Amino acid sequence: MTRVKATMLLVALLSLAMACSKKPEPTPAPAADSTKQTQSSGASSAQAESSSADLKPPDSSAAPVAAAPVPAPPPPPKPVVIPAGTVITVRLSSALGSKSSQTGDPFEATVAEPVAVGGKTVIASGAAAGGTVVEAKAKGKIKGEARLKLALNRVTIKGKTYEIQTTMAEQTSKGKGKRTAVATGGGAAGGALIGGIAGGGKGAGIGALVGAGAGFIGGSLTGNKQIELPAETVLPFKLTESITLK
Question: How much is the pTM?
Answer without folding.
Answer: 0.56
